[in-house]
Amino acid sequence: MSETLHIGRKISRIRELRGMKQEALAVELGISQQAVSKLEQSEKIEEEVLDKIAEVLGVNSEAIKNYSDETVINIISSTLNDNAGSVNFGCNLTFNPIEKVVELYERLLASEREKVEILKNNKN
């Protein structure tokens, strides 16, 4: 399964970036948390279902299809670099962007570890 084609993983990543739990997505979609988990494990998803998920996540279906971790990291990096020398025009950040990147990385890493454990348990 190619990461570039695995739509379920992309949904999972975007949901995590939004700080949304599977349960919350399930409620918004009117399905069970287990159904969301199954969707996030699916390599392909029907277009109508993808459109509903995209709407709940606040993006369009093309954003999900074209999502990549590298793109997000590049956007964050360029935003941080662009703003590094800029003057603060009354904009006070209520969070540390670096902490958010580290937090995102840790969540993604935990998610990958969880998937490895599930795969190990399924082999046994």
From TrEMBL:
<protein>
    <submittedName>
        <fullName>Helix-turn-helix domain-containing protein</fullName>
    </submittedName>
</protein>
<feature type="domain" description="HTH cro/C1-type">
    <location>
        <begin position="11"/>
        <end position="64"/>
    </location>
</feature>
<dbReference type="InterPro" id="IPR001387">
    <property type="entry name" value="Cro/C1-type_HTH"/>
</dbReference>
<dbReference type="Pfam" id="PF01381">
    <property type="entry name" value="HTH_3"/>
</dbReference>
<dbReference type="InterPro" id="IPR010982">
    <property type="entry name" value="Lambda_DNA-bd_dom_sf"/>
</dbReference>
